[in-house]
Each structure stands twice: as C-alpha cells, then as structure tokens.
C-alpha cells in the first residue's frame, strides 16, 4: 500500500517536472534569460565627458523607440565612468564583464581605453559594440568575431580631408594632435591621402593626452607657414585648440582643418573662432533623409538639445544590437546566429546607410562640412561609401 502511494507520488512529481520543462521551453526568452544586461563603459568625466553623455542618450533613445525593450527583453543598464584613462580600462571592463556579467558591452570613446577594453572582450568572448573609439587596429589585426564598431576608423576622416586638401592644390601641411592611437591614426590617414595627391606633410606636432597647453606649438606653426594645418582633437580639447588657434591670429592666414570631431558638439563654445572651418566626417547638419529628420526631432524632444555625431553613434550601436537580437528572438545563447545577423545588418542611420566590413568596421559616406553659425553644414560628399582595407584582420 505504502509502495503504491510512493510510486503514485513520484509519478505526479515527474509529470509536474515535465510540465514545468515544457512551460519553460515555451516561455518567452525573458522568463528564461531575464533582463538583457547592457554595460555602458564610457567617459562621464574629463575632456570627453560630453561625448560619453551624447552616446548614452543616443543609445537609450533607440531603445525607447523600440518600446523600451530589445527583442522582447527588458533592458538593464550597468554604467562605468572610464575617465578616458587607459590604465584603468582592464579593471573597468572586468567590472562589467565579470562582476556584473553583462550580455553586451557598449564602449568606448578613447582609443587607448578601447584597445584595452577590446582585449578583455576578446579574452572573455564578451560581445562588444564600439560607439566611438576609432583605433584602426581594433578592426585590423586585432579584429574578432565578438567585436563590432558602428562609428568610424580614425584614418577615415583623415583620408577624406587629405583628398580634399590635395584637390584644393594645397602643397604643404602641418599636423597637430595628442600623442595616442587616435591622433596617430587620424594623421596617418590624412598624410597618406594628401601625399598621394601631391602634397607634403612638413611637420607632425604632438602633445600628450589630454594636455591643452598649445602655445609653443602654435608658435612653431606660425614659423613653419604651411598652406594648411590638419588637427585631431575632440571634446574639451577641441574647444580650447580652435579658440587658441584663432586667438593667435593663425586662422587669418593658415586654414585649420580636421576630422569633424574638431567642431562637432563644440560650436556653441567655439563661437566666432570656428566660423568657416572645413572638416570631414560621417555626419553633419542638414543631411536630408527621413531617418535623420525623425532622429533629430526625437532627440531634441527627449534631451532638449541638438544631437551631434556621438549621439548618432550611440543610436546606431543600439540599432545594431536590436537587429542582431531580433534575429535570435532575444536568445543570447544563439551567439553564432546573433553575430551573423549583426554582420549582415544594413542600418538605416541618421548619417545615411551604414553597413560593416568583414572586419566589422563601418562602410559609410564621408561628408565635407563647413562651419556656419552653430552648424557643421554638409556642403558635399568627400568620399562615397568609404570602406576600410582588411589591415591584417583574419576572420
Ligand atoms: C578616439 O580616441 O578614437 C576618439 C576620441 C574622440 C573622438 C574621436 C576619436
């Protein structure tokens, strides 16, 4: 009698376990995998703080437009201020990847920090989407299936401006930048294209990141008297450089040009000093497509200020993630399919169309822009569908 009862109870238990298994398999992915954990590793202090904030705003806007969820899963954010400090990058990356166990890391702005972050991502097979840092190597010899970039490679705007200046028949150029990966890559792109077009870079000037004591270097530029100066700075450093260049009177005789970071998100602060400057970038004011119009209106409504290139990159980082996650119905365990879908994504970006190379670097138009008032007005396309060479990426 006792044996029969026990067997019956076991039978009921087995049926309940089986039913629970069926229910779990049929339950939405969120019930099985929980909220989608997103780690934002960005600068929220220091010279690039405004860039980190704009990227965060852009990313969150795209998620909100998607109903506040990604592929049916609620989103939970984990945030780390990386301070644009490469020395702190491994520890910061580990906080998100190992401590918080995030599903994806979105980061960062500074190329030196991104190089360290991408190493931690590679070592731990963590999904990483880079919403700014352009270090060429990351989508070159250091490329990896789990590392994507929706922003640009640092050499791209440099190549575009090198071509424009060569077409304008400038013969000599001086370059100036912070001495780190981004500055060096940007100058490298400019030099390659400018010299291929018949120009000559006569001097490359550097100062350590994030220093902004430009005076002695400006004196050197005045003495060298090149036809043009190409500068890579961004954020607070770009504001100071453009103002110091004008205060030294150099903008009257030697045009200052650069990648669009020199004047993007900075024009209110730069004011008169930036007027008329030419820059090249994958975004600008006045891009006339429905996505950009809707994006700009939504961003302005949500944050009460105009978006810049960094906001666009944050927005596109979320768009890429959403495309991948939709393809696997929110199931992050389907990693190979998720990556395949992200690789194949054709993103309708506010910048225009955005696709990725095999190395996961962006393919997009490089615009020529001119500063007019508080706008980086697009005045032409410097390079259509600019794509990167594989640069030693083996994938
Ligand atoms: C970089 O470090 O790659 C970077 C920083 C700011 C603007 C553009 C590039």
Terminal residue distance? 66 Å
Shape: globular
Spans where pLDDT lies below 50 across 5 or more residues = 1-7, 10-26
Number of strands: 15
Helix content estimate = 40-55%
Bound molecules: benzoic acid
Content-based structural category: alpha/beta
Question: How would you describe what is shown here?
Answer:
43% of the residues lie in helices and 22% in strands. With 395 residues, the protein is α/β, with parallel strands linked by helices. The strands form two sheets. Strands 7, 8, 9, 10, 11, 12, 13, 14 and 15 form a nine-stranded mixed sheet that branches. Helix 9 (235-247) links the parallel strand 9 and strand 10. Residues 1-7 and 10-26 have low confidence and may be disordered. The site of benzoic acid has 11 residues, from loops.
Short description:
With about 400 residues, this protein is an alpha/beta fold.
Lay out the secondary structure.
Elements: H1 2-26, H2 29-33, E1 36-42, H3 49-65, E2 69-70, E3 73-81, H4 89-99, E4 104-106, H5 111-124, E5 127-130, E6 147-149, H6 155-167, E7 172-178, H7 181-196, E8 200-207, H8 215-224, E9 228-232, H9 235-247, E10 256-259, H10 267-270, E11 278-281, H11 290-303, H12 309-327, H13 335-344, E12 347-349, E13 352-356, E14 362-372, E15 375-386
Parallel strand pairs: 1-3, 1-4, 4-5, 5-6, 7-8, 7-9, 9-10, 10-11
Antiparallel strand pairs: 2-3, 11-14, 12-13, 13-14, 14-15
Benzoic acid (BEZ) binds near residues 109, 111 and 132.
């Amino acid at each position: 009698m006792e044996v029969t009862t026990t067997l019956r109870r076991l039978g009921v238990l087995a049926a309940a376990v089986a039913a629970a298994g069926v229910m779990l398999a049929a339950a939405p992915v969120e019930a099985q995998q929980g909220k989608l954990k997103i780690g934002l590793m960005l600068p929220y202090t220091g010279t690039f703080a405004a860039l980190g904030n704009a990227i965060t705003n852009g990313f969150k806007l795209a998620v909100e437009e998607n109903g506040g969820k990604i592929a049916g899963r609620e989103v939970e954010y984990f945030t780390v201020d990386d301070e644009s400090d490469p020395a702190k990058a491994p520890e910061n990356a580990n906080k998100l990847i190992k401590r918080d166990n995030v599903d994806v890391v979105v980061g960062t702005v500074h190329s030196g920090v991104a190089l360290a972050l991408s190493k931690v991502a590679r070592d731990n097979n963590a999904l990483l989407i880079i919403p700014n840092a352009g270090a060429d190597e990351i989508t070159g010899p250091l490329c990896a299936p789990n590392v994507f970039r929706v922003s640009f490679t640092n050499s791209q705007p440099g190549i575009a401006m090198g071509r424009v200046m060569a077409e304008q028949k400038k013969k000599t150029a001086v370059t100036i930048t912070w001495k780190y990966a981004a500055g060096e890559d940007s100058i490298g792109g400019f030099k390659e294209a400018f010299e291929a077009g018949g120009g000559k870079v006569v001097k490359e000037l550097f100062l350590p990141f994030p220093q902004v004591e430009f005076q002695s270097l400006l004196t050197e530029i005045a003495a060298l008297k090149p036809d043009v100066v190409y500068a890579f700075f961004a954020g607070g450093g770009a504001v100071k450089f453009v103002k110091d260049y004008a205060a030294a009177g150099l903008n009257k005789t030697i045009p200052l040009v650069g990648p669009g970071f020199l004047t993007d998100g900075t024009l209110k602060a730069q004011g008169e000093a930036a007027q008329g400057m030419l820059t090249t970038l994958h975004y600008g004011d006045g891009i006339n497509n429905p996505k950009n119009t809707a994006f700009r209106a939504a961003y302005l409504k949500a944050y009460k200020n105009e978006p810049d290139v960094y906001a666009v990159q944050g927005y596109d980082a979320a768009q890429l993630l959403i495309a991948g996650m939709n393809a696997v119905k929110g199931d992050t365990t389907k990693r190979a399919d998720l990556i395949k879908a992200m690789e194949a994504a054709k993103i309708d970006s506010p910048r225009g169309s955005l696709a990725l190379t095999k190395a996961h670097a962006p393919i997009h138009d490089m615009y020529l822009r001119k500063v007019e008032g508080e706008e980086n007005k697009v005045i032409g396309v410097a390079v259509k569908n600019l794509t990167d060479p594989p640069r030693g990426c083996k994938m």
